[in-house]
Every structure is written in structure tokens, then in C-alpha cells.
Batch of 3 targets.
Target 1
Amino acid sequence: MSKLNQEVLKLLSKQDFLSGQKMATELGISRTAVWKAVKSLREEGYTVESVTNKGYKLVAASSELNETLLTSMVKDSSLFSEVIYKDSVDSTQKLAFGKITDIKEPFIVVAGEQTEGRGRFNREWASPEKRGLYMSAVFKPDIYLNEIIKFNLFISLAIANAIEKSFNLDAGIKWPNDIYINGRKVCGFLTEVISENNMIQSIICGIGLNLYHTEDISKLETATSIEDELKLDDKKDLDMESFLKQLIIDLEKQYDQFINMPFSSIREEWISKSIIFGKEMRISEMNRTFMAKPVDITDEGFLLAVDRYGETHKIISADIEF
């Protein structure tokens, strides 16, 4: 049905009013099939007007994530081969891991909700139904394992840029995997790999973005959503189609740069979007926690931080908090 939905949506996007019979003839299907496709599009959040003797008219695109929209986005992608959409899953990461051997090219998994969403360090990531973007993007590089540190930097820039271009909001990066707006977290991503002999075969990048306001967000002073930052009166004002297009474009661009260019090629841009430099932060590594101010980042992606005693630390993997 998703393919038929796309075809009907494509026809509606080109016309003012279009009769069910004309669509049925052009697509080689019955008028009943057209009616069912229109009904399905409405259920996915599209506003389709119907007028006797005139036909159907697309009034507004969907503000919700849905299979038709996602499949259409990936169809035009130069990187991702397909998208798997589920109304509900335990975790998009788990589903993505289970499909890696079956799907040879890069692909995307998206869910309407997650019942066991998780972030870095196995923390819970609240994923209520139709309130956020819950997505795992699978990449298939052939790179050394230590390159994964730089991957996070390129991807964080892609997400921040997509948010800024789509919603005109200033998005800042908190090293290594968080995106903030106005000092509050709006997005986090989790990077996991499948490797052999020190070489990475697959990168599974789980992205969790707060799109709409929830009770959980209202309880946390450190969290926010796109809806909250835009101060929308109606969630339909959020242009989901434009955002998804932009996100895929930026993921493709930054991934291509990651594969073909050094981190130094984006270092200054990344630093300009960072929100951590010059601020004292709690840095928690595997065996210690200390206070220090991040002051720079190396071309290898390591964070340099100076503690209260003037000692400089090279941070490879850690949790940092304001």
C-alpha cells in the first residue's frame, strides 16, 4: 500500500482537484483502490479534501512521520537504499542490527514509538508515540575501528545543520553525541559498530530527536523539543517533509566528507557550533571523574580539557556534564 500511497500522493501534488476516476485510469487501478489510498493518506496525517464532481485535493502535507513520506525521501537518496518503518518497536537499533546481513547497502529504520529506547551508556530514551524522530541509520564503510571517533563529529554537525536549516533554530553540539537548543537537549545519538580484525563493516547510528512537547520533557529543565522552541500553536505547522529531506541531505553530505576528507576539513565549523569550550564541566571516564574546561579538539577528534590544576587531559571517550 505504501507504493500506491506514494503514486496517489504524487498525482495529488501536481493538481488542484483530481477525480478518482482519472487517478484510477492513470494508475491502472480501481476507484475503490484510489479511495482506500486516500483514506490511508489521511490516516498518515495528510489533509485531503474531497468534493463531489470535482474529486480530491491535497490541502496540507503530513506533519507526522509516516511510511509514505519516509519511503519517498529515501527513494531520492544517493546513499540509503531503503527505509523500514514500524508503528512500534522495542528499539530501532535492535531492528537495524537484525537486518544488517539481509540488506547489503546503507538503510534506515524508523519507528513511531520505541518501548525500549536507549541512549549512550544504556540509558533509557523516552520514545512516546508520534512525539519524536526515532531512527537508526546504517552505514557500510570499510574503515579502521579508531575512525569511529571522528564519525560522531561529522554526524553531530549533520544533525545540527539540518535543524538550523529546517527550523531556523540555533543548534549547538555538546561533545560527542548531543544537540542542544537554548541550553537544553533536543537530540542525542548512539553509535554502535560491527567490526572484524580492527575494521568496521557496519555503523549503526541511532538518533532520537524530540519533535513535540511531552510530559517527560516538561519535567526536565535540561530538555526541550522542536515544538517548544518554535512555540507552535498547532503541531501541523511543523514541516516534517522539508525537515526529513534536509536531514537525509546533510547525513549524506557529512558521511561523504567523513569517508573522503579529514576532520580538519570541518573542524572550524564544528568548533563554531560547540557549546562546551571554556566552561567547567564534569568529565566522567571509565575509571575517574574530574572537573575541567574543554579548550580544543584535535584533528583525531580527541577533546582537550584543562583541569583546575592546569593539567591538560586528552579525552577519548567520556560523559561530560555542565
Note: Residues 2-60 form a domain with the Arc Repressor Mutant, subunit A fold (CATH 1.10.10.10).
Target 2
Amino acid sequence: MAMSIHDRTVLHNGVKMPWLGLGVYKAEEGEQVERAIQHALHAGYRSIDTAKLYENEHGVGKAVRESGIPREEIFVTTKLWNTDQGYESALTAFNESLEKLQLNYVDLYLIHWPVANKYKESWRALEEIYRQGKAKAIGVSNFTISQLEDLMSSANVKPMINQVEFHPYLTQKELLAYCSEQGIQLEAWRPLVKGDILQEPVLLKIAEQHSKTAAQVVLRWNLQCGVVTIPKSVNKNRIRENAEIFDFKLSPEEMQAIDGLNRNQRNGADPENFDF
């Protein structure tokens, strides 16, 4: 079945989330992030991914509010930072994020990293936020299978999303299969590996065959893996280019060739061993 930029995956609680979103990590608060979101919304994006850590929630909320697009059509994600983990502190941090966004609710709230001995208490807070309707969906980011199993051993609500580093150098097949079995939607951050992957001969060859760029091939591979993708850019042309991934399809052989680039190579921190 053909996909379009308007297509959404259905999370296990029935909430619909766009397959493609705009990441705004390191987009500067104010004019830069607001303009990037304007470009994205104009190009058809309906999902924006921010976090307390990014220090641009105010600009994200402003761009969403002033877009002229009905609030219910735009999917807004933000995240709980590590220093705010715990039950009461997570509730406080969420309310601070909502205040900065100046929105009545967020569509998705995530625990940003699995801080040992704290993420279960944080999850209790997210369950309360979800119960109150202040977040339409809740989930985690950077959780391994063992961390998900540990979290779910005491959870009342199963995470709807696990947002992780996912790209052709880190294909995470076991995690993808586990999340699929559990009904947890996997979402890719830094899908283009800061651009490092875009000179890969395998990708360039496939791109040439489809009259596409290597970046478009990687993002299309994400979608065909069943993974939500949120490439980050503040560049108008690149934002548009990243959205032009719905008019072609990779063959099984091309998907297999891209899978073959896996090196189990992380660009970011290891969820089992980080110190921030």
C-alpha cells in the first residue's frame, strides 16, 4: 500500500502518530526553531519532537499555536530530562514543559533516558499525567529490552513508544522485533547519523536508481522497517527533501543491502552505560 506524509501509525492505545516528524535538537530557541517548524508544517509535517534538554519548548509551542493549523492535527512530543527523574520531580518538570509550550496537553511525553533506580518512579508520574489527559500517549527513549522488561514488571500502562538511536549502522533488529511483539512503536532519533552515513556507496547506488538522495533512502528504509522517523534540520530545502520519501519504495533486496550496513555502532551514548 502506498504511503503519504499524512499517514499515521496507530499506537496501542489508539492514538495516531505521524510516521514522519521534525526533530529540533540543537535548534536555537526563538526565530530559528520557529522558522524550522513553519517550513516543516508548510511541507506537510504534522509531528514535532522536542525535549526539556533542547531548551526550545517555548519556540516550539509558539510555532504550533501560531501555525493556523488546528491543534489536534499537530503531534507534539517532549521529554523528561534525567535530573528531573523521580515521581514528584517528574510531575513538576512536566508542568514546567507544558507552561513553556503554552499548550493544554502534549501528544507524547517520554522518559528521555533510563536513569537507574529512578525510571520506575518517573514512569508512575507519566502514568498519572496520562490518566489526567495531559499527555495523549506516554513512552520512553533509549530503553533496551531488559530495561523495558524491568519497567513493565511494575507498570500499569505499557509504554506506547520507545524512541532510540536507529540507523543503518545500528539496525537494532532484536529491539525492533521485541517492541513489535509488545505493541510498542519504535521511533528513530538521529536517523541520518549527523550525515556521516550519506557517502556510503550502497546508499548512493540505491539512491541513484530511484533518483533520490542517500538521506531519502535512509528515511524510506526507516519507514519500511516500521519505524517512525524524526530527522532534524533547520534548513528549509532539507526539511522539504526529507519529506519527499513517500513516492518511491525500496525493494526487498535493497532493504537487505541496507540492513547489511549494520555495525552495531552507536553515535550517541550507550543506554546501559551513561553518566548524565
Note: The chain has ten helices and ten strands.
Target 3
Amino acid sequence: MHIVIVTGLSGSGKSEAMNVMEDMGFYCVDNLPPALLPKFVEVCSSSQGALDKVALGIDIRGYKFFKDLNESLRFMEKNDYKFDIIFLEADDNTLVRRYKMTRRKHPLALEDNIFQGIQRERAMLEELKQQSGYIINTTNMKPSDLKDEINNIFKEGKEKTNLIISVTSFGFKHGIPIDADLVFDVRFMPNPYYIEDLKEKTGDDKEIRDYVMNSNQSVIFKEKLQDMIEFLIPNYIKEGKNHLVIAIGCTGGRHRSVTIANLLYDFLKDKGYRVFKKHRDYTLK
């Protein structure tokens, strides 16, 4: 029997994750009180294979969350029930924005202070996060990205790593991303902004990519950047890092940074890494 516990921060995408699990053929139960977990697992175990794939959504809404859940997990370990824990999270700004868009109240927010509610929840869930086999940061993910990530985790025969890589382009005039682990400045590259026919295009356009990369400095930088990142990733994995944010910056975040971010994303994707990309500023002027 395959048991998957889906948990994490409110607003991080647990409902979407449960939908993905259901599409994968898991019998899904959302918001199960942790105290009922042992009994539910016993029922599934005695179903003679009818419930051999089960996904349980558990979150902070229960008042006795940690006490009951920890006891239930110890019960499952003691009785040799095999289970995986997927923990979903996102950065504070993303969670606040999602709550404002849905106009829902955070379960731990006092006087509608969403940010303080998020901080309380992070502290309460930290122990559970450390116990999780898979940590997914959904900050830069679309629902389709989350679906691909979960499918990738449970793909048979593929070596799994807990590191997610986010490649983000940005403009220095709009500020450095606060969650960046590695920041690379590509303002030394040829700038299409000063070419009238290219000014309004972005690094997603072939004309911009060709212009930026038609330089020995750009080609050498790309190769050295790829070598460095490929060297660093196994070391981050060894140290237990679960989310690596690589930020590529130019002046406005529209041309050069987008070009290099796209090339680095393609390189890492071809290498088989779990990688996502986001162009933060290329719609800004």
C-alpha cells in the first residue's frame, strides 16, 4: 500500500496537489483529522488491494495538529506502514498575494493580518517540514508545473532528488529578488534596448537571443555559468538544500537576463534537473 501525506503552508497549493494525486489514481481524503489517521490506514490495509494508493491532505486547521499527527506518524512507523510526506511551501509575498486574490482568511491570522498568520504557521510546521521526504516550493510554479513536479516525484524507475531549481530573470532597477540564492549580473552583455527594432521585444524572441549571444563575452559567460551551476548543484543536494533560486539580472529585466535565464533553464532541463523559470520584470517598463 502506498500512502502519501500532502501537507504544508496554507495557500501553497495543497488543493491542487490533491487534485493531481486523484488524477494519478490515488484515493484522496482531504482535511483528515490527524487522530483518525491510524484507524483510516488500518481500514485501507484490510481492503485487500481496493485502496492500495491513498493520498491524505492534512493541514493546520486542527487545534491539536502536532500532538495528534506526530503520534499517528509514530504509529505508522511502528507498524511498518510505508508513507511519503509531500510538504508544499511558497515565499511570504506569494502567499499574501494568493490570499488577497481569493479574499479568504488565513486560518492563523489575527485581525486579518495575513503576514503574521503565515509566520505563525511556518513556525508550527517547521518540525513536520523536516520530516518530509519531498519539499516543493510553489513560488514560481503554475498549476501545470506543480502537476509535472508531482508526476516526476512518483515516476517509477527515476532517481529522485529533493532539490528544486528556480531560474528567475529580473531587472536591477526593480530590485534584486529577495529569495535569490545566487545572483548573476549580465549588464556587460550587448544591450538590445538601444536598437529601435529590438527595443520592444524580449529575450523570448529569437532576434533578441541572437543579438545578445552574438558576442564572445556572452558565449564564454554562458559556458562558465553552466559549468559553475553544474558543479554547485550536487554539493547543494549533499548539504540537504531543497530549493535553489538562481537570479539573472540586467538593467530592466527584459532582454539580456531573459535570454540567459532561458538558456540556463534549457541546459538544466536537458540535464534532468527539477527546474522552473520565471521572468519577473519583462512586462515592466
Note: Strands lie at 2-8, 27-30, 53-57, 83-89, 134-137, 164-171, 182-185, 243-250, 275-279.
